[in-house]
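Researcher: We plan to redesign the surface later, but first we want a full-length starting point. Tokens attached.
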């Protein structure tokens, strides 16, 4: 699936053509919550900072943030500096919060990270780590679509114009030799932009024939009788592609590097805990989903969704660059200058201390 590498770093930043590139999630618009674990009495603040504000989506693709919050693993690393959490249901609103200083660090999808970085001419954020790979599937009505060729002429939902899954689906369509106007979604396939919260109802009503969506929406569709026709992971080298990154406001990174390092250490240790305790981690993520959105996932949705998502410390930078290429090919993005979007120095410092291997930035790191 990934297009040949292009020298994005050598190009001048140009404006986006598309609407804000959103990510997909669940829950209400940004609502602040204190961390689930209390700051230990007498714990020392890092750099004297009272709190760090962390944003994420109530979505299984943000499992690291969900579990790290629920189990108090971030707070443990932050000592007397309180972890405060905000939830978002779309990438643009989280980027706005970062720009406005309402949050300092966030878990977010690749498309809004690219958009936020580009629109600010590289001045507002850095990607400082990876969080999750996979968890995106094409689920269809098996009565209407029995093979990939049958997708032609059908109505397939994606979460939002220009979002990560929308770009991926448009790229897949182009690789089949089919034509679709990216903006309108009309052509050999009808691309229907539908909020993830209502996609299952749209499927049940027959207004769509399938959807290219992240978890847990994909598993919700399967629970309604849908069939997984394609797992996007199968289209990528090593079956890995970025679905969630960790970003930070550049000024916060500069002013509070030890706090950033503590959050990254919490992320790395949370991912290790998830790997070691998959069932406990799944339960913790679901408990936090219920706390954040008011609704836990039923087992028939939670179990398959959880299995398809892989936590990762590696931001899989080459796949982010490929995703940007796909957006350019679809006509949704002007060729961006992504040089400097990554600063993996703090993460690699943490990984070394934890006995891990360093991760790369595909040549797009800060100089």
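Model: Full-length starting sequence:
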């Amino acid at each position: 699936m990934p297009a040949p590498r292009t020298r994005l770093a050598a190009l001048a930043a140009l404006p986006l053509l598309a609407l804000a590139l959103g990510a997909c999630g669940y829950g209400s618009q940004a609502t602040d919550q204190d961390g689930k674990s209390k700051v230990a009495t007498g714990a020392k603040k890092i750099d004297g900072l009272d709190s760090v504000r962390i944003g994420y989506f109530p979505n299984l693709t943000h499992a690291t943030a969900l579990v790290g919050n629920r189990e108090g693993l971030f707070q443990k690393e932050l000592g007397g500096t309180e972890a405060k959490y905000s939830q978002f249901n779309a990438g643009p609103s989280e980027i706005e919060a970062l720009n406005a200083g309402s949050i300092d660090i966030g878990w977010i999808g690749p498309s809004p990270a690219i958009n936020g970085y580009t629109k600010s001419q590289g001045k507002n954020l850095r990607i400082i780590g990876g969080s999750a790979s996979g968890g995106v599937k094409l689920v269809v009505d098996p009565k209407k679509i029995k093979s990939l060729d049958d997708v032609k002429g059908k109505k397939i939902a994606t979460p939002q114009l220009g979002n990560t899954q929308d770009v991926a689906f448009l790229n897949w369509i182009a690789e089949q030799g089919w034509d679709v106007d990216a903006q309108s979604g009309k052509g050999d396939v009808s691309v229907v932009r539908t909020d993830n919260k209502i996609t299952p109802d749209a499927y049940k009503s027959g207004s769509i024939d399938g959807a290219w969506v992240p978890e847990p929406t994909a598993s919700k569709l399967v629970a309604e009788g849908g069939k997984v026709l394609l797992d996007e992971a199968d289209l990528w080298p090593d079956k890995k592609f970025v679905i969630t990154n960790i970003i930070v406001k550049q000024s916060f990174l500069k002013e509070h590097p030890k706090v950033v390092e503590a959050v990254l250490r919490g992320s790395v240790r949370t991912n290790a805990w998830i790997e070691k305790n998959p069932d406990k981690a799944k339960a913790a993520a679901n408990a936090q989903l219920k706390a954040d959105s008011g609704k836990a996932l039923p087992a028939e949705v939670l179990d398959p969704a959880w299995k398809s998502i892989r936590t990762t410390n590696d931001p899989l930078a080459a796949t982010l660059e490929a995703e940007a290429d796909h957006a350019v090919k679809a006509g949704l993005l002007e060729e961006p200058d992504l040089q400097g979007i990554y600063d993996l120095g703090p993460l690699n410092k943490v990984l070394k201390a934890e006995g891990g291997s360093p991760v790369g930035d595909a040549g797009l790191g800060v100089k």
